[in-house]
Amino acid sequence: MNWNGITVGYALTGSHCTLEEVMPQIQRFKDGGANVIPIVSSTIMTTDTRFGTSANWQSQLKDITGNDIISTIVEAEPLGPSKLLDVLVIAPCTGNTTSKLANAMTDSPVLMAAKAQMRNCRPLVLAISTNDGLGLNAANIAKLLVTKNIYFVPYGQDNPQQKPNSLVAKMNLIPEACYAALEGKQLQPMIVEYAT
Q1: What is the 3-state secondary structure (H, E, C) of 101-155?
Q2: What angle do CA 47, 143, 100 make, to 5 degrees?
Q3: What is the 3-state secondary structure (H, E, C) of 37-92?
């Protein structure tokens, strides 16, 4: 895919088990010529887990994108007036972020960036990763599905036997979903069978 001349906002929230899977997708944007602006939630900036340290993820983001990380609401706010981002993807997008976005809450850099993108009527792409996508968060996902300029990376149940409410996006389809969103289209099929 040719991303020359396109600025991609790449926002990450605290589904730490998914971070290793999304890093190659950020590299794909860069390899295609995109300018990638990394945006992270406070969880990514402060939390070490068994999936890696905060310092390691921050280092990878800076190395891949060549840009400083937007990590505060104050840093994210100018994204609205500057109209910097052609497309913004939140990947992984946790259930917490999904819920807040659906209910117009702006209490993190990622949500501020999303608000800025929606203000500018530009595409916002969500790669959900939540254990309650078919539980309490189903209503929030439904709300976002019918919201103008919001698109989804195709998703499915990742472990229906042990976690029947869990939904996870096919992270390897992030660039394709963003490319479609720039054309005003939802990548299809949106709901996919997700092999465990």
Answers
A1: HHCCCCCCHHHHHHHHHHHCCCCEEEEEEECCCCCCCHHHHHHHHCCCCEEECCE
A2: 30
A3: EEEECHHHHHCCECCECHHHHHHHHHHHHCCCCECCHHHHCCHHHHCCCCEEEEEE
Distance in angstroms (rounded) separating the CA atoms of residues 128 and 154? 9
CA distance 113 to 73: 8
Return the pLDDT at 14: 82
The pLDDT tens digits of the residues spanning 17-45 come to 889 999 999 999 999 999 999 999 988 98
Distance CA 172, CA 156 (A): 13
Q: Is 163 left (phi over 0), alpha (psi -120 to 50) or beta?
A: beta
Q: Residue 11 in 3-state DSSP?
A: strand
What lies within 8 Å, CB to CB, of 129 at 6+ separation is 15, 18, 92, 93, 94, 167, 168, 169
Per cent of the chain over pLDDT 70 is 99
pLDDT tens for 45-71 read 888 888 888 899 999 999 999 999 999
